[in-house]
Amino acid sequence: MKNLAIVAGSLLLVGMLGGCAAGSEEPVSSTVLLDKADATVLGQDFSYPVDSPEISSSIVVLQPGASTGWHFHEAPMYADVLEGTLEVTYDDGTGEKTNTYKAGEAIMEGLDVAHNGVNATSSSVSILVVNMGSKNLDNTVLLDR
């Protein structure tokens, strides 16, 4: 996290200096999406894998009516809804709970809890997904449900 802050700060400074030199470019701005989250959306504590850590990212797009399928994550996952509205139903074994996430919302996804994301709208949903796993953990484990 510290390295990410250093990189972001460096990019901000370079952008600001570049804008000053050119004189006609817009200044760099920053919008906080998720600030120092210390728990998942389900209130779970999380920690980063220390054995062979890996980070991967992707943009997941769900067309109207599509679902992710039931799955769970073994390692921390950050998601940012870029476009649309996503309904995610979680099943921790004691019952189901559904959360709705809209464009602009950032979340730390639940760990080791079965869940299914559904696009129940008539527009596509785009989600930036960042997995903070390791060679010994699966980012996503699909379930037969």
Features of the shown structure:
145 residues, 14% helix, 9 strands, mainly beta, 1 helix, globular, four-stranded antiparallel sheet, Jelly Rolls
Compose a concise summary of this entry.
This protein is mainly beta. Helix content is 14%, strand content 37%. β4 and β5 (96-102) form a beta hairpin.
Largest sheet: 4 strands, antiparallel
Report low-confidence residues grouped into runs of 5 or more.
Answer: 1-21
Strand order of the largest sheet: 1-8-3-6
How far apart, in Å, are the first and last alpha carbons? 36 Å
Percent of residues in beta strands: 35-45%
Give the overall shape, derived from the CA principal axes.
Answer: globular
CATH class of the domain at 48-142: Mainly Beta
How would you explain this protein's 3D organization?
By secondary structure, the chain is mostly beta strands. It has a domain at 48-142: Sandwich (Jelly Rolls). It contains 1 helix and 9 strands. It has one helix at residues 2-22; strands at residues 53-62, 71-72, 77-83, 85-91, 96-102, 106-108, 114-118, 125-134, 141-142. A 4-stranded antiparallel β-sheet has the order 1-8-3-6, with no helix packed on it. Strand 4 (85-91) and strand 5 form a beta hairpin. It starts with a helix and ends with a strand. The relative contact order is 0.26.
Annotate the secondary structure layout.
Layout: H1 2-22, E1 53-62, E2 71-72, E3 77-83, E4 85-91, E5 96-102, E6 106-108, E7 114-118, E8 125-134, E9 141-142
Antiparallel strand pairs: 1-8, 2-9, 3-6, 3-8, 4-5, 4-7
